[in-house]
Amino acid sequence: MDAAQAAWVSLIIGVVVLAAVGGVRLAARFGLPGLLFYLVLGMLLSDDAIGGIAFDDAELATALGYAALVIILAEGGLTTRPATVRPVLVPAILLASFGVAVSIFAVALPLHWLTGLDLRTCILIGAVLAPTDAAAVFTVARGLRLPARLQTLLEAESGFNDAPVVVLVVLLSASTADAWPGWLIAVVVAAELVGGVVIGLLIGMLARWLLPRLALPAAGLYPVAVIALFLLTYGVAVVAHTSGFAAVYVLGLMLAAARLPHRRSVIGFVEGLAWAVQIGLFIMLGVLVVPSRLTEALGIAAVAGLLLLVVARPLSVGLSLAPFVRDGWVTGRTGTPRIPKRWVAFTSWAGLRGAVPIVFATIPLGGYAGDGELIFDVTTVLVVVLTLLQSPTMPWIARRLGLVRTGGMGELTVEAAPLDTLRAALMDLDIPAGSNLAGTYISELPLPRGAVISLVVRDGRTMAPDRHTRIKAGDRLLVVATELAQPATERALQQVSRGGRLAGWTHSVRVPDDDNGG
Predict the structure, then answer these.
(1) pLDDT tens across 135-145, in order?
(2) Residue 338's CB: how many other CB atoms inside 10 A?
(3) Could you tell me if residue 405 is inside a domain?
(4) What element of type H or E holds 428?
């Protein structure tokens, strides 16, 4: 390739990426993930359509898909609030393991009986359709103002359920799969999942100790170091024959709860990189699709899609979450997380599919001597159809179930990087319509020692507040707090947002004296 050809390639890439970025805004107007736009754009660029780009290397697509999923899972783990993970960790793991198994067989067995397809092919179809897509869930769920723990449940499920599925699909796609007894496959899947979690925990503990002590000469090196840690974790886990995806997501959760130097820079870099790989991933998968072949898969896709939506997903969610429902089997046990029935109903519908099923479908496309093309085509059709069906209806269903937060506190986003050397954090607080914080005077907020409202943004203008400033709906507050005062500050604001201006004064707001305090 000479300089002129390189310039044309650069021009084409720039135009495609800008079109993909602009497509996010267009898709958002219709309540769709922008990622669907990227997939369609890739299909239009394929050799079978108008673009003329020939790409049929399924093994390369699988490898690039794995790399993209590492970054997507890393971003999902890093941007999850640790306080909301702990109460839903066990239900999320059940959804991602037992729930996945239920979903696979609830699709595969009826599909085999109804269509006469080979049972192994039906299990592969059920397997690639079982995991929810992390990128789609992160994109859609975070825009719905769902209860924090419900949102985290959906995100944690999508973060964990890739791990067992990829192991199962690789095993079933191998030429030696028929020699493996079913119980042994289950043991291997479970062992790789547990091993990946352990490796993620070990490297996470090392990272939490190491990163604050690196003292790198430039802030821009910290995001690079964090990405290198995620890649290292994935590589170590895979070399050790454990789940790299589970290890990466666990590492992300551990770093989210750690004192991460230059957190704002790190998260901003990882988020940007995640968007870039999502765009590239979906366009690449779209180019891999052969549109003229999709019509042959419509019948199988219709049966599999109905089984997934009507039987498999509700059954897997219902059985996995039954022990945690408020009037379920074990409500009398102390410490058991409680999940309302309406959360179960919403979770049954909110199993979004996206790039993950298509990436996993490239595995049998490249290595399964049976119906690899059929599995890939069925998966592609269902990803498009289910995205068009589920994503626009999720806000309506959330409102009908009373899950959309119309009041209370906006999302607290800690932006700590500019204040790292001062051991302080900058918190960004939105005041939505109906919030109990609206109408409260600054002097009435029970902020602990070491916290102050530093700036109010109102109607696009900034103002320095004083004790007589009254908070209004639509305001955006910037709160500066020391590291020790930050947890107490969040609790104080949450108390007022839930119970009104006097609520915070009825609870003691204490700042710990040292890092080991409460």
Answers:
(1) 777 777 766 77
(2) 13
(3) no
(4) strand 424-430
